[in-house]
């Protein structure tokens, strides 16, 4: 989706920057009047401005595209987390679910049911070494 915006912005910038070249031909092609030709020739004086605007829009589109790609590379989600039971200190590596939050967890050693600490959204955020996937993505948890 973001690369589409960049391509559209680049195409618009190109059309604006080169309007002094193609606009007179278009006006003549459709039978334009001399006043329209004068307008198009007047646009030629602004070609430097259009080139600067086009270059700026092209650069901005590239920056936005690069920034989004760089952010998506940084958001590798870790699904493995090591839970430590606060009751018996037992340690177990678990795979976190990606489609739901895990509010309860039964310790495999002492069988105590763990719940998230106040302010945490799930047991992985409270007792795990890695926060749950939504928190890693910078989103709100369930």
Polypeptide structure, described:
The chain has 142 residues and is mainly α. Helix content is 53%, strand content 10%. It has a two-stranded antiparallel sheet with strand order 1-2. The chain has a two-stranded antiparallel sheet with strand order 3-4. The longest helix has 28 residues, at 47-74. The radius of gyration is 29 Å and the shape is rod-shaped.
Question: N-to-C SSE series?
Answer: HHHHEEEEHH
pLDDT under 50 segments (min length 5)?
none
The total domain count is: 2
Number of distinct helices:
6
Radius of gyration: 29 Å
The secondary structure category is: mainly alpha
What percentage of residues falls in helices of 4 or more residues?
Answer: 40-55%
**Span between N and C termini?**
26 Å
Strand order in space, largest sheet: 1-2
Bulk shape: rod-shaped
Biggest β-sheet, characterized? 2 strands, antiparallel
User: What fraction strand?
Assistant: 5-15%
Task: List how many beta strands DSSP finds.
Answer: 4
What's the average pLDDT? Answer: 81
